[in-house]
Specification:
Length: 106
Amino acid sequence: MDTATLRDIVKQVISQYARLTPSHGEIRLDTVFDETQNRYALMQTGWSQGCRVRGNLIYITLQDERIYLEYDGMEQGITQDLLDLGVPSDQIVLAFLPEEPLALAG
């Protein structure tokens, strides 16, 4: 798939999650689509039980005709959503995982 198609799919998936209503608190979900730099995010902001809530729920970058999942804070993850919309698995990079297994100091 080309970058324009991947961009449309990413925006579709993030927009789906943005329509959800958080189960607690007064929390707003905002989409952030930067098509110039190919950066896409779902942000949360608001209050829950007297505490401020803010941060990324999803952060994706597009580069080299691949989707880089930089952060996926959704309960079941969004990888299957991307696959269901036709994105080949070799065009999805789980960038939040290290490329090489971490060596444990012992």
